Amino acid sequence: MSVTPVDKPERLLSLDVFRGLTVALMVLVNDPGTWSDIYWPLRHAKWHGWTPTDLVFPFFLFMVGITTHLSLTWRRARGDGAGDLARQILQRGLILFGLGLFIAWFPGYAVAGHGALGDRAVAQLLSWRIPGVLQRIAVCHVVAGLLSLRLGTRGQGGLAALLLLGYWAVMTGVPVPGTGETGLAALAHPGGTVAAAVDRTLFDWGAWGNHLWASAKTWDPEGALSTLPAIATTLLGVLAGRWLGRPLPLPTRVQGLIVAGVAGVILGEVWDLVFPINKSLWTSSFVALTAGMACLCLGATIWMVEVRGWRRWTRPALVFGVNPILAYVGSELMAIVIGGVITLPWDHRIAPVQDVIYEAVFYPLLPEKAASLAFALAFVALWWAILEALYRRRIFLKV
To answer: What letters, b where the CB count within 10 A reaches 16 and e where it falls short, cover 13-41?
Structure first.
């Protein structure tokens, strides 16, 4: 009796390239020289509306959906059972969630605080943020992955639509606790929405601390209720992965992505009239718009890399794309270290090493916003060098 080896499904280099571009842009926008001087495309929209920066996180979740489908398809073909697949999905989700909590806790004490180290450690615990970027990725991966084990294309698409319509109904139809506002008035203020009320209920523990976003403390951009439409973003990525895995000519698959992308953008802009595009709330119109944009940008990347064969430019993006978790976690921890953990005497004060580098190297040479961008580009270049060295040694962080 012979056993036929199971080949991995067609691997498109362009998927790693697109994910790498997304991660590199994420590092760029997260690490300016100073937050006070940033070009507007590199800022998040203050509330309603969107900027290019607002595309980064949904693009990554969209790619999580695609890779989840491709991975499950291969593992099923290899003979892995549903129980094994579910355990792998849950294990990966727990690791990602734990990494997110670690980043929020690191370095274990309040860097900007004063007083004894023990008091600062307690302050850190009492303000330890529970929601976060990796935490949302973890939840979306687990839910989308487990649903993919049970639902087909129609089921996943129907559930995504139900999540988006249901979220719209809740956010505009349920009176906001304390104010009773509904409709567009219920979306006017960050801390005055149904989502914010849910976040405060779940994560503001009174004497045991407030575990919401430090910049607000009354709501969280990665909060609980707004994670539901983020799951829809991931499910739409799963559907895109199903489409890309079909045995059709690659140009046909690219055309399908473009058509879906145009439809998503139009739907998002129309929906914006009654449910504004808003990244912090992850509104349904935001999901439609960003999923459409992801389809368009991914389709363009596949066309350039796979159809036209333009690959010489892809290496820098590739090294980010094959090590995305290491790039994100490492860059976040490094930013915390240079942003406050390590300090130096500078200009008659004790300053974080990042401020010293920025003010000594970049600020004297360029206008404020250009200097801030130059620092961010240098930070991305540093991480490219680290990831390139790891890539050459075939070292990849697998979660």
So the answer is: bbbbbbbbbbbbbbbbbbbbbbeeebeee
Nearest to 337 by CA among 64, 167, 4, 106: 106
**Ranges of each domain in the chain:** 1-43+313-399, 53-310
Task: Give the contacts of 21 (CB within 8 A, at least 6 positions apart).
Answer: 301, 317, 320, 321
Q: Residues 6 or more apart from 367 whose CB is under 8 A from it?
A: none
pLDDT in tens, 283-303: 999 999 999 999 999 999 999
How far from each other are the two terminal CA atoms of the chain, in whole angstroms?
35
Q: Are strands 349-352 and 343-346 parallel, antiparallel or unpaired?
A: antiparallel
Q: Given this model, what pLDDT does residue 114 score?
A: 67
- pTM for the full model? 0.93
Distance, in Å, from the CA atom of 293 to the CA atom of 302, rounded to the nearest integer, reads: 14
Question: Would you state the pLDDT for residue 3?
Answer: 39
Q: How many helices and strands, by DSSP H and E, does the chain display?
A: 14, 2
The one-letter code for the residue type at 111 is V
- 3-state secondary structure string across 222-283: CCCCCHHHHHHHHHHHHHHHHHHCCCCCHHHHHHHHHHHHHHHHHHHHHHCCCCCCECCCCC
Find where tokens 């349920």 sit: 174
Mean predicted confidence (pLDDT) in 240-257: 96
What is the amino acid identity at position 7? D
Q: What are phi and psi of 352, to 5 degrees?
A: -55, 150
Q: What is the pLDDT of residues 3-14, one digit of tens each?
A: 344 455 567 899
d(CA 226, CA 385): 36
